[in-house]
Specification:
Layout lengths: L16 E4 L7 E5 L6 E8 L4 E4 L5 E2 L5 E5 L12 E9 L4 E8 L2
Antiparallel strand pairs: 1-2, 2-6, 3-4, 3-7, 5-6, 7-8
Length: about 110
């Protein structure tokens, strides 16, 4: 467990990241409007708020000042995550937090 609350301080309207395709699967991409050094954490949670996957490990640079991440539909343990609704939650180094609802299809 990450020790973070999924909903605490989350701003669902933060324009700094987008999720696509949504719904999507088995792979989902994340585009960030900030460089990866400004992203402190990027995680996937299930509907019960349980940590599923850490996306920081998949962060890469994109064109300009942005960053990209990729979720292959697996948990941190390497198991396939069940089809359903999840939340991506990002904490930036400036303290801002944003989340996006996403649907994983199989």
């Amino acid at each position: 467990a990450s020790g973070e609350s999924l909903g605490a301080g989350a701003n669902r309207l933060d324009p700094r990241f987008e999720v696509y395709p949504n719904p999507g699967g088995p792979a989902i991409s994340f585009d960030f409007a900030v460089n990866r050094e400004r992203i402190q954490t990027a995680r996937i949670y299930d509907l019960q708020g349980r940590h599923v996957r850490d996306l920081v490990k998949t962060l890469g640079a994109s064109a300009g000042d942005g960053a990209t991440a990729f979720w292959d539909g697996r948990t941190d343990a390497g198991n396939d995550a069940a089809a359903g609704v999840y939340f991506a939650r990002v904490r930036y180094t400036d303290g801002a937090v944003a989340s996006r609802k996403l649907t994983l299809m199989r």
